[in-house]
Amino acid sequence: MSAEPLIPNRLDDENSALVILDQTLLPNEVVYRALHTNEEICHAIKTLQVRGAPAIGVAAGYGAYLGAKAAPETDFDGFYAHFSAVRDALAASRPTAVNLFWALRRMDEKVLSMKTCPVADIKAALKEEALAIHREDIAQNRAISEYGLSLLKPGDGILTHCNAGPIATSEYGTALGPILLGQEQGYGFKVFADETRPLLQGARLTAFELHRAGVDVTLICDNMASMVMKNGWVQACLVGCDRVAANGDTANKIGTSGVAILAKHYGIPFYVLGPTTTVDLNCPTGADIPIEQRDPEEIRSLWYEKPMAPPCKTFNPAFDVTDHELIAGIITEKGIARPPYTESLRKLFE
Ligand code: MRU
After folding, report:
1. Which of 15, 127, 187, 347: disulfide with 182, CB 3.0–4.6 Å?
2. Residue-wise pLDDT tens digits, 200-231
């Protein structure tokens, strides 16, 4: 990537802070915020200052560490009560991306495995665990990018929805990873970025990340995807994921399932890209994935000088579920899962 990398999460341990890139201000301002309290970190996740499933997981790991670091060094039970309150507050920040719960479970397991150790040692181990979650995500992104690139040809047209780039993860990204890696290798992809109503992650974040990396990116409104596909301009769809159920049904940003249905109609392969930390084998099907409902004002008035709708009812789910039958492959750091997903996803964990 040619432009200065943007870092969504960074631990500043000296100042007991999680430093995040405030994604709500992009593309107009690049602002980093130092978050010192668990309330601030939960607020940043809720308001999408830090967003994207893997980046939320990394933020949760650091949040759990910083919350634990602030705990008084009493006995284990006192420490664990404090840690549990921090963990539960983080877990309540957003419901759909499973990476959040995965990271918190991992931090919790670390604490419980050290019950007999001094609290100071537990805190030190939690710091290492949070850093490891972050490091592993970087490595996973790179592997996903390579697997994804192996499915593409130079000059391909690619359509993506929402933002699954470096700022939603740790480096490269998931859905944008093969595109950015291909850019470094001269693949000359032509990318169509859905603007992604209502929060415009495609316009504000994906178009921004690809444009600054020098990728040939064309921004379209969500309702233009069908025309672009019909024109023969798209050879593959690449999207990220917030939770993949055991049968391959996949939750991602609202509008993703419509893209998959269109892709099927036009005979275009539709790929989901994400680390195995986004696969939830405890969730049998997409019907079991909790879908976040968000503030009606995101539809009615956000981005407008005046409200653009009457104060009528709204329906504002943040995610939808793409049926596994529409997905040509699920690209993870451990390889590409193909249908039947119940079998291929389970094999990734063996
Ligand atoms: O509401 P958001 O912006 O957090 O939604 C993000 C998405 O849907 C992404 O596509 C998904 O988290 C994958 S990020 C690599």
Report:
1. 187
2. 999 999 999 999 999 999 999 999 999 999 99
Q: Which fold has domain 152-347?
A: Rossmann fold (3.40.50)
62 vs 72: CA distance, rounded Å: 18
Nearest CA to ligand 1 atom 8: 253
Span from the CA of 254 to the centroid of ligand 1 (angstroms):
10
pLDDT at 189 over 80: yes
Determine the distance separating the centroid of ligand 1 and the alpha carbon of 251, expressed in angstroms. Answer: 9
Class of domain 9-141: mainly alpha
Q: Is the CB of 318 under 6 A from ligand 1?
A: yes
What residues contact residue 319 under an 8 Å CB cut-off, 6+ apart?
A: 96, 242, 251, 252, 253, 254, 256, 289, 291, 292
- Spell out where 287-342 has E strands: 319-322, 329-332, 335-337
